[in-house]
Amino acid sequence: MVLSYSQTIRASNYTTKYTINSDGTIRNSSYSTVGYIKSNGSIQNGSYQTIGYLKDDGRVQNASYSTVGYIKEDGRVQNGSYSTIGYVKKDGTVQNGSYSTIGHASGVKKEWAAIVFFFFDF
User: Fold this and answer.
1) Which of 31, 51, 80, 84 has the fewest C-beta atoms under 10 angstroms from its C-beta?
2) Contact call for residues 86 and 99 (beta carbons, < 8 A)
3) β 33-37/59-62 pair status
4) What is the pTM of this model?
5) How does pLDDT run across 54-98, given as a tens digit for each residue?
6) How many CA atoms lie within 13 A of 102 on its CB side?
7) What end-to-end distance do the CA atoms of the chain give, in Å?
8) How far is Cα 107 from Cα 9, in angstroms, rounded to an integer?
9) Does residue 76 contact residue 90 with C-beta atoms inside 8 Å?
């Protein structure tokens, strides 16, 4: 038996922005599917079109395989020029580059939270 669960991504005021199912399906607060993070690292929009890739080394690429950012082991999120644009803290707090809290993703993989908050606007 396979158990399915979802993790909640919240705005800074704790309202639900997205839920991510254990299979990588991303739904908005109206429960509409807006994207997918696949086990092979591909990132798709709600129409199953590949819009990017999450590589094992933390690189984030667009659909043309150009690197658009990096998710570091320590939770730093950098753009393609290595400038820090945000942070995903161990407790799930998501901050912008100025350390202002922009959301919460407790229990969500840091890579998935970074993808949703910083790289792809579903």
Assistant:
1) 31
2) no
3) unpaired
4) 0.87
5) 999 999 999 999 999 999 999 999 999 999 999 999 999 999 999
6) 15
7) 31
8) 9
9) no
